[in-house]
Hints:
CATH architecture of the largest domain in chain D: 3-Layer(aba) Sandwich
Order of helices and strands of chain D: HEHEHEHEHHEHHEHEHEEEHEHHH
CATH topology of the largest domain in chain D: D-Maltodextrin-Binding Protein, domain 2
CATH class of the largest domain in chain C: Mainly Alpha
Number of domains of chain C: 2
CATH superfamily of the largest domain in chain C: MetI-like
Oligomer: heterotetramer
Distance between the termini of chain C: 61 Å
Largest sheet of chain D: 9 strands, mixed
Order of helices and strands of chain C: HHHHHHHHHHH
Number of domains of chain D: 2
Strand content of chain C: under 5%
Distance between the termini of chain D: 51 Å
Helix content of chain D: 40-55%
CATH architecture of the largest domain in chain C: Orthogonal Bundle
Amino acid sequence: MATVDKINEEIDLEVKNFxxxxxxxxTNSLKxxxxxxxxxxxxALIGPSGCGKTTLLRSxxxxxxxxxxxxxxxxxxxxGHNILDENEDLIHLRTRIGMIFQKPTAFPMSIYxxxxxxxxxxxxxDHKILDGKVAEALKxxxxxxxxxxxxxxxxxxxxxxxxxxxxxxxxxxVEPEIxxxxxxxxxxxxxxxxxIESLIKSLKDKVTIVIVTHNMQQAQRISDYTxxxxxxxxxxxxxxxxIFSNPDEDLTKQYISxxxx
Amino acid sequence: xxxxxxxxxxFFEHLTRFSAILVLFFLSAIFIVxxxxxxxxxxxxxxxxITEQKWAPNFELFGGLPAIYGSFISTxxxxxxxxxxxxxxxxxxxxISPKSLKAPMGVSIELLAAIPSVVYGMWGLFYLAPLMxxxxxxxxxxxxxxxxxxxxxxxxxxxxxxxxxxxxxxxxLKESAYALGATQWDVIKDIMIPYAxxxxxxxxxxxxxxxxxxxxxxxFVMGNSHQIPNSIFAxxxxxxxxxxxxFSEVDSELYLSSLYFLALILFIISFIIxxxxxxxxxxxxxxxxxxx
Amino acid sequence: MTSSTKxxxxxxxxxxxxxxxxIIGVAFLFWILFVLLKNGFSALSVNMFVEDGAPPGxxxxxxxxxxxGQLILAVGATVLGVPIGILAGTFVREYGKKSQxxxxxxxxxxxxxxxxxxxIGTFVYALLVAPTGGFSGYAGITALAIMMIPIIxxxxxxxxxxxxxxxxxxxxxxGAPKYKMILDVVYLGARVGILTGILLGIxxxxxxxxxxxxxxxxxxxxxxxxxxxxxxxxxxxxxxATSPYEDWQSLGWGAALILAGFVLGLNILGRIWLSFxxxxxxxxxxxxxx
Amino acid sequence: MILKKLxxxxxxxxxxxxxxxxxxxxxxxxxFPAPVYYDWAYSYKKATGHKVNYQSxxxxxxxxQASKRTVDFGASDEPLKSAKLDKEKLYQFPAVxxxxxxxxxxxxxxxxxxxxxxxxxxxxxxxxITKWNDPKIVAxxxxxxxxxxxxxxxxxxxxxxxxxxxxxxxxxxxxxxxSKVGTGKSxxxxxxxxxKGNEGVTNLVKQTPNSIGYVENAYKISNKLSGATIQTAxxxxxxxxxxxxxASAANANWELDKHFYYILSLQxxxxxxxxxxxxxxxxxxEKTETNSLVVDFYNHSFExxxxxxxxxxxVPLPTETKNLIRQYxxxxxxxx
Lengths: 261, 292, 290, 336
């Protein structure tokens, strides 16, 4: 029933007939969702609160597994195999599919250690390599110039916007293939928001990006593809330009024109 | 009308102020009384009291070292056992345990913290000491047994506070570490423990203060020997158990004064330990807040 | 071995270790509880509650004197310590606020709260026992009250802090003088918390032995005169447990059970009371929203 | 359930608060005579309604608390000399005679079977003999199967008249002891674990295999411990039995003007058990009112308590001694 436009891109992740149920719930929070995630593009998930966009995003790196009793149905294909498989190596999976959260999540350590954390987890111990990669990631996160002289300060000393860029730098330091953004600017001021947005646009050369946002202008500004969700279902998926100018579904039309949400 | 109120107002305010000053009064009074009472011994022995080993009341010779040593070593043994186990319990309660176990186990551990220490002492004398005797030989009384009882006594206290501190780690912070490919242990050691560190260290220091000043749990099993033992399984004594054993039975001024000297030393050390924990807690409260 | 498999093995190992630690720790704690319940219940009898102490080997010795003595000491310490604690807490929160003096009192009471209880015993001995010529219930009560004041002070301080300022402003806006506002509005708003604090404070001091050894001393008889030495469950336990007589040791376990029951009962009561009020308060808030 | 019981107790108790106001006395001190004082106080309360609250805290405590006037009477197994009594303004009289016995907890060795020479006792407490099968012990006990185990030495942790009398005895039989440790209520013990009171020592001996301790005979009897046979002053083996204690006690030479100061240790005679001691009561001179009550209590006990004293393992004072004490009371106007 949903309108899912065929796209002419290399597909990185493919969600197929995917449903999700939270522990203790009797109904599915995501119902039979299917959509492709194009490689090296930005895909935005939009929809009113409670529509399941964050639930879907959090399924893509199986962060739901941290809490017992959550259930996945269907398939999410990544390089030809289903990541919902029981034997999936979640630790490995998450190093390849990174995530940025609603609020900045600087770890209780220095700026340097924050960025180096993922690398250290992967067993990188050589200081020279670490130094280089940290600098590179901070540059990638558009933060390097601001912090290069105080890399060993506590990460708490950074402003909110800086911390969010630090989190992005931390995520890209491990060179993931996909980055998931969960409303990354909802806690930030407009100037920091613009900085993050331009950062996201610049990142897509290297990684595939999925972003959840409740800000439709933001989706329009930065995404190539948009999926509109409502009440746990995917209503429409297609090129961003098309979704925002000429959607097929009435619901989509009403939502983007601000009739509800 | 107005006047009546302002008299009452003044009266009430001064009453509360007076009560607050009482706290200051009691604490200073404890210090002053201890110093006055300890003065004859301080004057007679000087600071060599702290380094002198011989405790021979029949010769009017009093050295505090064995008691001070016993207090330190038994507390050290207690911390060595209690800290890892308590943190283990806290990690279990906060991260590993199935949900259905969390609440009952958490509450029962908190309730165990409320059991009077004299009960721990009784258990120690009748159950733990024989067990220690069978396992390690000797007579089962001494620093090791006392340390073990102290460890068990402070266990609930440290675990409860550590669990609470670990639970304050924001979910989103843990998730973002998992999203980087961290294992559960990575998250615990790199995120949760550093995040809760101040709380954990604070609780550990407070527990240390408690173990150091504990009387009843150790007096039963210390062995009460004013000798510096050559083994942790040999009988020893501690400051509080020396006081409990000998305080009401001294028959000379110098003897009593020496016991007050020990009490003064105990009070000062506890004061330092607690003040340190307090300082740590305070420092912690100001920093470390996730930005919103 | 890749770093990821190594980390997974370490993860498994450490988590299992922590589970084992938890099991060992909890096993010890439950061992104590089991011993207490087993010995305590087998010692429990009606006699224990209606008879006083008797020489070892005499039929029908009980703990009435110690139970009543313990209650007298606990109630006495409450009567003496709670008003001072509440008033001092009120000063710190309502009058002293963030002044250096108020902070000093807070810090000092934290220190007093954790001071070794035996030191307080020696202090009261010097202050009240040696000069007045006798061990007495009064001395015991004073020692326990000194321990109780900082506990009540800090609870009052914290609980008054939870009372929203809007309530205070509303009272002042109605023309109430400050002491009226505190007595009628602030105390009312904080009463659940303060009462819980009092319960926990009683539970805390009721389990103390060390400060009583040289103050209220002990008695083999039923005693209600505070000028005389008074028996307590804790000191009786200490004496009975270290004695060689099996009937006394058994009574000691009985005393331990009664005391632990009393202390745990107060703790549980405090919790239930608090959670009960927490729930009702939530309900009230919900109703208001509607 | 427990709370309910507690509540009923409180109610019952408040109803039970006796309307007749019996007199109250608080005494504290020696643990050595504590069992018999408990017993006497219990009977005295039944007979007269007066409460005598005796707390056994050790003789050191008895002297200290009586001197400080924190109790109505003190009790000590170490008699005080006139000078000290004058200084602290105390009266003193003996109340009962007891004996210090060496008790052990060695599996398979029955009461009285183990022979310990007086010097061996000193050497054990000096830490010179550490094993039960030490040749010096075996020499006196060729027929016993003594274990190759360490001896756990148990002694007092508090100021004790029992210790005073025991160390007095050890100083007399061992010059080594005399020079290294000496005599006193609290000592710098070379070895051992400390128990609080005779109660604590008994408890530790009972609980600890291969231990040895010294306690008043009453503690040995009521706890069915095994005792050792030791030596008289002249080196004859002597068991810890009532007739041997009595043989020692018969030698006592009490003197009124010395306030009965007398140490019964190592009396002459082939049957005189060597560590026998009287235990004393200390009365603050100025407390005339309570003193007459204390005296009444002891007079009542002298008249009615001999049987229970013997049963518990003490030696009651001979009638002539009791009369001498009554004379002392009268002379110092201690009676009403």
